[in-house]
Each structure stands twice: as structure tokens, then as C-alpha cells.
Amino acid sequence: MECKGLEELLSAYADRETTPAESAQVEAHVADCRACGLRLAVLAKSKQALASMAAPAAPRDLKETLRRAAARAEAASPESSGPSFGQRLSAWRSALSPRYGFAFGLAAFLLVGLWFERRPEEAVPLDVMLSAHRQYTLERPLGGSATRPGASGPVSEDAGNDLEDDETDE
Amino acid sequence: MIWKTMKPTSRTYRAGLAAAFLLSVPWVSAWAAGKQALPEALAVLEDALRGPAASYEGTFFVRIGRGKSRKSLVRCSPAPEKGLACRREFMDSKGGVLFVSATDGAKEWIFDRKTNKVWEGPSPGNSSAPGAQASSFYRVSLSTGGKVAGRLTWKLELSPKSGAAPGRRLWVDRERRLVLKDETVLPDGRIALRGRFSRVSFGVRHDPALFRPEAVPGASREGRLEPSPTVRSKVQAESGFGPRFPSWLPSGFVLDGVDLIPYKDKKIIHCRYSDGAVVLSLFQSPPRAKLDLGAKDRKEVRLASGPGFVSWTEDAGVLGWSSGETKLVLVAPLGLDILQRIAESVR
Amino acid sequence: MLQRFVEEYSDSAFTFAYRLCENVEEAKELVQEAFFRLFKSWDHFDQSQPLEKWFLTILKNVYVDSVKKFDRRNMVPLDMPVRHEDGEGVSIAETIADERDEAVLDMLERRESEGHLKAALAGLTKEHRAILALCDMQGLGYDEISRVLGMPMGTVRSRVSRARTALREGLLKRTAGMVAYGV
């Protein structure tokens, strides 16, 4: 098994997210390959280092705010009362949205791409613009020779003027 | 070796021994050497973007993508209080001039022989803090470059922080800080644009007349960056919305023409710019029209005027943004910092 | 129930938000908003589900909001994913393991490594930071991460790998003498 392209597999192995067959592959390879064994060690170590990084705790004022909001939310919908309009509305919204019912979250997520909304029947495709630019690049009228108007760039008059591709003095 | 002369029991001896050991490890010694030899990347970038203090002359080749190189003659003279006076001429094989752009630091004058047109307008000038501007878009790193045009260089790598956008590589003359080679690099490593000197000399004295406009009999005259009022009103009438134009473009660029591209019931305005070698397009879509970006690799960015995106094609960088109700898209084989500057100047 | 949820998960949520935006005030805002949104619709949540499922929702809200917000510190450019499978425009070449790993391993084992680690993290794109935060700091599995970030598990796997490569590159820059000035 080649080392190249193994990176992702090693990473998944370090996360214990490989199938049994993949795990066996990794273990067999690493037994013989010092470099990949070392890479795996680095992956494991960086995982551990990240996990043990000092995590800033939530500031007290944030916790207070959240506790109060939680208390309010719980008080607002006691179990005994029937569904309020707000609750029915929420229920309707959640029926439209996928599993976890984060109706607001999903709506917000949809808003992310609003500027680049893809409604083909109304939207102007970027590709049209890029083709037009490409066309202009090929015609490139300015700076060209009068003898070949609209050609794909001056050719004959550059003969002898060209900087060779491999002319590099590095 | 220093440690040999010290007493075995002293602390400094042990430290020296440790240091000697560390320095023998290849990557550490590279680090030690590097720390002494290389200058500050940002300082070199500032110098490079500002330009050299001495006047110079050279042969400069421009190559777009994998096309043929175009040869030009470049002559520049720093003009005190005005900036840089510069003249660039593209020639044909017989030495005849095809295209000239000349600036005295304040005014720019461009001539195209084929179409017999002259453009005039204010010179773009330099931004006040070119290094700071560029460094906000890019991660900047410096290493030793080889020789370009026979001269030793520093190589500056400007890689866009956002990805999905063109970056730049500059080879800067170590002594004079002139950019001897300049590449626009696309995210996949392809080179969209390369310009380089094959020969350069410094300290040459130039006739100031070289940088001033010349009379060209029979040539039509136009503004450098904006069309005549006739053309402008025609575009406005046919498109249904006012076209906007950048007020800043790199030196040598002129408005080549304005087209209207029909798309379904809409019209897209296409402003075409060229500097005789490099072409640049500015597209504008009708108000409230949405832009379908397809499956392009891209990143969202933020301009002063509002949200935008960067993307790229196999031969150009793309910068799109929203201004008022119009969507604008800039396409050119230029680095992101330059694209941004053009975009911010659109009025 | 909600109060218990707050007690158990507000710290973790804040940690995640902080890792994303590296700013206490912004992190507070993100967490607050995420929790408030959840509170608004909590009564039709399946309350028999473990609280941890709700926590994934919080993480998702935090991530989505942080991505929507423009980074005020750098006007441009921004490293935000735009519905693209792989947010990076540059393909990070997969490097064959080599002796530089020794240097990274060595550094990670030293006591002062946390400073370097923090700096290397700060140099990553937001998406990379997010996925490492979820995987290594929150300890989520790939299936949970795929739910939080809204991407297929295959993508999670490759994205985690790339994030680690990017982190390793960042750490390497702080060990050996590459002269790199991240501005």
C-alpha cells in the first residue's frame, strides 16, 4: 500500500472512524512504514493536544442571561394548557422543517445564500459573462497589428520577439 | 567551536554543547541561517510596490496564460512630487510601435496604431500605503529568488487569504527593489499572467518628452476610462440602466468599448478594457436581477460597498459584488488586491 | 428541563463559539442567539430525546450564524464557505509523511506548545477551525459533525484530514525557519 493518499485514512483511523477492513489496512501498513507510523503519532498527538487545550468557560453574565431566558420559556408554555396560537404556529413551522425542528435555524441558514439565489428563470448566469470575456480575450484588438484585425492575437509580427518559455535565469 | 575552549563543568559549556547539537539538526540550522539573511517580507513588498528611486530602462515581456509573449520597451523615471514617469511601447518585429502608454506621473496618454486612437486621462497614481493594502488580502512570504534579467532577486509570494482568488508572485531586484518579474497565479497553480524583464539598466537618463502626450494626426481622441457622453447615453437608452465605470485602473489600461449582451429579456453591459496586452471585463446586470454563479469554486468577501464573491476561471480571476441594485462582475488575470481596488473605484 | 440544558451545555457551546470567532463578545452573542432560537421552538422538540441532540442544534446554529456574520476585523477577504463541498479554493497537497513530523511531534510534546497550537489554529480558515473544534475539542463523531455542518460524512472525513494538514503546516511554520508573515 502506497503512502501517498493515505493521509485521509490515517486521519479517520486516529478518530476511530474507519471500517474494520480499513483499520486492518492501516495497521498492516503502519507496521512496516515508519513514516506513516510517525504521521499517525502526529495525528494522535495533535488530537490530544487540542482536546486538552484550556477551554474558556462561558462568562457568568451569559449564563445568567441564558438561565433567565430558559426560565421564561419554560414558564410561558405550561404542560397543562392546550396549544396556543404561537405553539400551533411553531408546530406548523416545524412540520415544514427537517428532523430537529430548528425552524428558525433553517430559515436563517437559507438566508445565507440569498444574494446568490439560484432561480434560473430569473437569474443571469455568470457563465454568459465569462464567455463574453473569453471571446474578448481571443479578439484582443488593441495593441495588435493592422494586418490581422480580429485575429487571435498578433502572431507573425512577434516572431523573433518572443521570450522562450524555458528562458529562465533562476 | 566555542565550546571547546570552555571548562567542562561550566553552565555556558553545557549550553554551548546543547546549542551546537541543535544547530547540527538540519531544520534548526536552516532556521538560524534564515533569521540572519532574509529581510522583512512586508518591507520588501512596500518597496516593490512603491518602485525604485532610480530611473531605468528595459525590455519587458508580457505573456497571458499559455499565449505568446509580447515584447515591449519600458522606460521610467521617478518624477519628484509627481510619482513615476513611464513609457511602455509594444513593438512589431520591424521595430515599429503598435501601442504606447506614457505617463508623466499626473496624466496618462495612450495610443493604439491599429485603430488610430488616442486616450487621455489622469494617471492612476499609487495608493498611499500599497503594502498595507496588499497585505490585507494576502499572506505574504519571502524567500530567495534566483536571477531575473541577470540580477539577484527576492521572491515574494502573495497568497490570497480567501483562497478561490488569484494570488501574485513578485521577483524583486535586491538592490533596486524593482519588480523584475510579476506573475498572477490562479488557485490551481496555473499562471494567468506573467510579465518579466529580460534586460534592464539603471541610471539611464530619459528625455522628458518621452512621457508627454504626442500629437497623432487624424487619431480619434477619447477619455481613458469613460466613454464619450454619446456612447454613454446610447448604452443607457438600450440597456435601461445607467452604466457605471471604474475611476481607477492600473497604468496603461483604457476603455476599449462597451457592448450589450442580450440574455432572455435582459441586457448585460460589458465594458472592455485593455492595456495593449492584458484584457479586463466589467459586467453589469440590470437592477434586481440575480446572478447565477453555477457550480464555480468561490468565496464570499466583503467590499466597502457591500457583499461580494471571488472566483476564478482557467485564465482569470473573478470578483463580483453588489452595489445598490446592480450586480457587477470584474474578470481579469490580475491579483485580488488589484481587482479589489478597481471594484472599489466604481462609481 | 431547559434550565438543566443551560447548566449542562452553555460552557461547551461557548467554547465552540469562541474557537470559531476567537472573540469573547462575538462568542457570547452567537451562543445567546443560538439558545434563544432554540427556546422559541422548544415545546415541539421531542422531549424524550437526550439533551445532547438539542446541543447539536445549538452547535449548528452557532456555526451557521458565525458564517453569516462578516468578520469585522478584516474587511476583506473572508473565509466563508458558500454552499461548496470544499470551501477551500486551494487544494492542499497531501504530503507524504516525512521527518518534519518529528519536529511537529517534538513541539507538541513540549509544555509551551499550547501557545503555538493556538497561533496555528488562529491561522486556519474558519471552516477548518470549526471542524477541528467539533471533532477534537467537542469530541463529536463524524455522523454528528455531518449533522451540525450539514454535509455528507465522506466530506466530513476529508475535511477533517485537510484541517489537520493545515494545522500541521501552521505548526511547522512555527518550528522550522520558513519566513512566513501571516498578516
What number is the mean pLDDT of chain B? 82
Tally of separate helices of chain C = 8
Helix tally of chain B equals: 6
Shape of chain B: globular
Largest sheet of chain C: none
The biggest sheet of chain B, with number of strands, parallel, antiparallel or mixed sense and barrel status, is:
12 strands, mixed
What is the helix content of chain B? 10-25%
- Examine the coordinates and then state which fold CATH places here, giving the name of the CATH topology of the domain at 223-344 in chain B: Phosphorylase Kinase, domain 1
Hey, which two chains have the biggest interface?
Answer: A-C, 59 and 74 residues
Estimated helix fraction of chain C: 55-70%
- CATH class placement of the largest domain in chain C: Mainly Alpha
Order of helices and strands of chain B: HHHEEEEEEHEEEEEEHEEEEEEEEH
Number of strands of chain C: 1
Subunit arrangement of the protein = heterotrimer
Rg of chain B (C-alpha, Å) = 24 Å
Folded structure, characterized:
The complex is a heterotrimer of chains A (170), B (347) and C (183). Among the domains of chain A are: 7-51, no CATH class; 126-156, no CATH class. Helices cover 54% and strands 1% of the residues of chain A. Chain A contains seven helices and one strand; from the N terminus they run H-H-H-H-H-H-E-H. Chain A has helices spanning 7-14, 20-32, 34-51, 60-76, 85-96, 103-112, 126-139; one strand at 124-125. Chain B is built from six helices and 20 strands. In chain B, strands 7-8-9-10-11-1-2-3-4-5-6-12 form a twelve-stranded mixed β-sheet. Chain B has a seven-stranded antiparallel β-sheet with strand order 13-14-15-20-19-18-17, covered by helices on one side. In chain B, strand 3 and strand 4 (97-103) form a beta hairpin. In chain B, helix 3 (41-50) crosses helix 4. The N and C termini of chain B lie far apart (66 Å). With 183 residues, chain C is mainly α. Chain C folds into two domains: 2-68, RNA polymerase sigma factor, region 2, helix turn helix motif (Rna Polymerase Sigma Factor, Chain: A), CATH 1.10.1740; 100-175, Arc Repressor Mutant, subunit A (Orthogonal Bundle), CATH 1.10.10. Chain C is built from eight helices and one strand. The termini of chain C are far apart. The chains are: A mainly alpha (170), B alpha+beta (347), C mainly alpha (183). Chains in contact: A-B, A-C, B-C. At the A-C interface, helix 1, helix 3, helix 4, helix 5 and helix 6 of A face helix 1, helix 2, helix 3, helix 4 and helix 5 of C.
